[in-house]
Amino acid sequence: MQIRNTAAPAATARTAAAAVTAPPAGLEFGNRSPQVKQLQDALVKLGYMTKEQVATGPGVFGNKTKAAVTKFQGDHKLPTTGYYGDLTHAALKKALAAGGKPPVEGPSKPGPSKPGTFTKPPVINAPSPNSNSRGGMDIDTIVLHHTGSNNGAGDLAWMRNPQSQVSAHYMLDRDGKIYQLVGDEKRAWHAGKGELHGVPTDVNGRSIGIEIVNDGSGKTAFTDAQYKSLTQLVGYLKQEYKVPANNIVGHKDVAVPKGRKSDPAANFDWKRLRAGI
């Protein structure tokens, strides 16, 4: 990649800018390579990163690069995973071919937020191998669970263990931290045999699963930090995938036979969540 020289003629600068291309797919958080630098240059050209941000870590797929990829994905109606895969590569290539936006010279400022809209809250990537393809099913349901313990580290380790054969897309710890174990575009293994509004269906294939760290006894309170994070996360997912309000359910609402599951626990404040979203 040719680096722009501020002393170069305008024609040379335009040639350098025109040379920005989309790197091959398959880049993710933590990668260090020339391909990551190529991705960053493309994001700068499209206005998703600043020159200053790229200069602080060229070739390193860090938090700023992931945030830029996630924002690009959201703007192009793609799953907001932060992973630069085939779909994101195709969209980036198309955007660059269309000319994109000029590079941003300084720190970017977020636009004014609209009432009733949500952005994806910060998540900690903790990939689980326990997932498979949705098989073409659209996301139209959100299922809430309690983990069955108050030990977030243990719950996280269990869902990341391939022998457990269980997972969820997200886990909310007691302190409100959100861990993403499975990308939204994949089918996590959280609901088992189920139905939706009385109709048998592959709940896992059509839903996002959220595990909330709580022992499920009905005596252990869900924390304020959990409600705050959950409201932002569910509000975002509801908005992103156009999930009907009556499809935001608990595991106990979809598990069959009835009574097989009780989560989230009886003391979970559904009214508080629904008022927030």
Automatic annotation (TrEMBL):
Q: What class of enzyme is it?
A: hydrolase
Say which domain of life the source belongs to: Bacteria
Q: Spell out the InterPro entries in the cross-references.
A: Amidase/PGRP_sf (IPR036505), Amidase_domain (IPR002502), NAMLAA_amidase_2 (IPR051206), Peptidoglycan-bd-like (IPR002477), PGBD-like_sf (IPR036365), PGBDSf (IPR036366)
Q: What is its EC number?
A: 3.5.1.28
Q: Where are stretches of biased composition, namely Low complexity?
A: 96-108
Q: Which UniProt keywords apply?
A: Cell wall biogenesis/degradation, Hydrolase
Domain N-acetylmuramoyl-L-alanine amidase stretches: 126-265
- CDD domains per record: PGRP (cd06583)
- What chemistry does it catalyse, as a reaction equation? Hydrolyzes the link between N-acetylmuramoyl residues and L-amino acid residues in certain cell-wall glycopeptides
One GO biological process this protein is involved in is: peptidoglycan catabolic process
- Which one of the record's GO molecular function terms can you name? N-acetylmuramoyl-L-alanine amidase activity
Provide the coiled-coil residue spans: none
Ranges for the region named Disordered are: 96-138
Q: Which family does it belong to?
A: Belongs to the N-acetylmuramoyl-L-alanine amidase 2 family.
| PANTHER family referenced in this protein's UniProt entry, alphabetically | N-ACETYLMURAMOYL-L-ALANINE AMIDASE AMID (PTHR30417:SF1)
What is the protein name given in its UniProt record? N-acetylmuramoyl-L-alanine amidase
Q: Which organism is it from?
A: Melittangium boletus DSM 14713
